[in-house]
Amino acid sequence: MRFLYQQLEQQLTEQIESGQLALGSRLPSVRQLCSEQGLSKSTVLTAYARLEAAGLISARAKSGYFVCYQPQSGIPEVTDVAPMTPAYVSVDSVLLDIMEQSAAFDICPAAGDAPSNENLRRCLARAVRRQRSGQQHYYDEPAGLSGLRQQLVRRCGESGSQLNADQLVVTGGCQHSLMLALMAVTRPGDTVAVESPGFYGVLQLIESLGLKAVEIPASTSTGISPDALEMALQHWQISALVTMPGFATPTGACMPDEHKQRLVALLAERDIAIIEDDIYGDLTFGLQRPRSLHSFAQAQGYDGVLLCSSVSKSLSRDLRIGWIAPGRYLQQIKKLKLVTQLASSQSSQYGLQMFMEEGGYDRHIRQRRQQLAEQCQQLQQLIQSSFDVPVQMSQPRGGMALWLELPDDLNTMELYNRARQEGISITPGSLFTSQQRYQNCMRLSFSQPWNKRRIEALEQLAGLVAERK
After folding, report:
1. How far apart are the C-alpha atoms of 257 and 270, rounded to whole Å?
2. Mean per-residue pLDDT over the chain, rounded
3. Is 397 within 8 Å of 287 (Cβ atoms)?
4. What are the angstrom distances between the C-alpha of 49 and each of 9, 67, 167, 395?
5. Which of 107, 112, 315, 413 has the most neighbouring CB atoms within 10 Å?
6. 271, 199, 186, 201: which is closest to 233 by C-alpha?
7. Domain shared by 194 and 163, yes or no
8. Is it the case that residue 172 has pLDDT exceeding 70?
């Protein structure tokens, strides 16, 4: 027997997934549903809270509830599960150009209005003032400040991972954590499995460490294909898997729990390391962040998962603080950190520690989730109204980016060069693979507010697409 709130939740879910309630449409008010269906206020509010947690709807202050999900009728799911042959990686110089513009997550870097956090700034300033005399002349302990690690352990607990501070190492950001993880579990010439399309930062690391990548097809909604991974494991000797199960870039895909359990089982059976990039996990559009692969590995008694994350995407890109929970590789990671970074800024760590202790991060992340959900919805609506050509887009329930598939005859690398001349920044799809793929795709971010200049930039981009030869 289903409770009344479950019946209402199912009814509204079916209306959303069928398209009857379209993206951006306003749901009936709580009072209206109570009157029409004879339900109590608590029943309706419970159903709405569950729909919000699932990423189907979002609440707007004083406005009500709105649909923030569109059925996956756009980009087709993975049908060919055959992985690519392992190959050495070469990352295009376009990526360097994007980073030099600070344009990886902004279609118009000159548009301003980037969100800031005054409470964080004050905590960082207080940390500098409170620093003991002469402390700046000493290195911090290799694992990072104990107080900060205590706070990070609590954050990891939100994803189901049970850790203590001694099992965590503070790093110089998530990219640094990923590098340490790859250095700990591979040797030059080894093969690493990566999702495709996947994070270009991982491809950079694989190239710099002299490794080979085998690309595993990934769905735009559920992430890496367990079937394709199993096939790859049967064909090639793989040393590690690097995956982003929570709102992966560039697609925003979120791996279902059953897929996480199967992935852990597949790799634990063969004792293959799993490097989990959980940098976007906090940025769910719902109330509950997704569980980490690491937590499922703990439940299965497997200690071969290296959990990596940072506050770069959830809080501040300028605050280069990340962490890694490396399981059995803890001592190796500590030694590698000394080789690659030696020490982290004590004042930055202490400032972040205070910010978290005082509840600043929790307040910030609640607001940030709502902002991103609304900005994602705005971007989807702007794309639908601005582009005259068929455009298929992913439907993320968290993260910071959309994956767009344009007509086959459009090359987004050429589009990048044309848009660059107009001060518009996109990330071409070919950067998210080591193969000749995704040339008609691109990533667009919704991490910044859609002010007038960014809307004009998107409309101008749509015009460049329409003018293609």
Report:
1. 20
2. 87
3. no
4. 9, 13, 34, 20
5. 107
6. 271
7. yes
8. yes
The whole-model pTM stands at 0.82
Tokens of 140: 């911090």
* Whole-number pLDDT of residue 74: 44
Domain containing 403: what range? Answer: 98-115+364-466
- Report which secondary-structure segment, H or E, holds 292: none
Query: Are both 318 and 407 inside the same structural domain?
Result: no
What CATH number should be reported for the domain holding residue 432? Answer: 3.90.1150.10
Helices (H), 158-292: 174-185, 200-208, 226-235, 257-270
Q: What is the pLDDT of residue 76?
A: 43
| Strand 191-196 to 240-243 pairing | parallel
Q: How many domains does the chain have?
A: 3
Which of residues 316, 342, 361 is at a domain's end? 361
Burial of 79 (0-12, 13-18, 19+ CB in 10 A): exposed
What are the phi and psi torsion angles at 81 (to 5°)? -95, 5
Q: Say how far apart CA 222 and CA 270 lie, in whole Å.
A: 23
The pLDDT of residue 138: 56
Residue 1: Cβ-neighbour burial (10 angstroms; 0-12, 13-18, 19+):
exposed
| Both structure tokens of 38 | 């004879």
Q: Is residue 75 part of a domain?
A: no
Contact 312, 161 (CB under 8 A): no
Q: Residue 33: which CATH number?
A: 1.10.10.10
State the Cα–Cα distance between residues 240 and 246, nearest whole angstrom.
18
Locate all alpha helices (DSSP H) within 101-216, ordered by sequence: 118-130, 146-157, 174-185, 200-208
Helices 360-386, 118-130: crossing angle, 10 deg rounding: 140
Query: Which stretch of 97-106, 255-264, 273-282, 433-442 has the lowest confidence by average pLDDT?
Result: 97-106
Find tokens 């971010």 and name the residue: 445
Which residue, of 361, 389, 405, is where some domain finishes? 361
The tokens for 281 are 């996990």
39-66: string of b/e by CB count within 10 Å (b at 16+)? beeebbebbbbbbbbbbbbbbeeeeebb
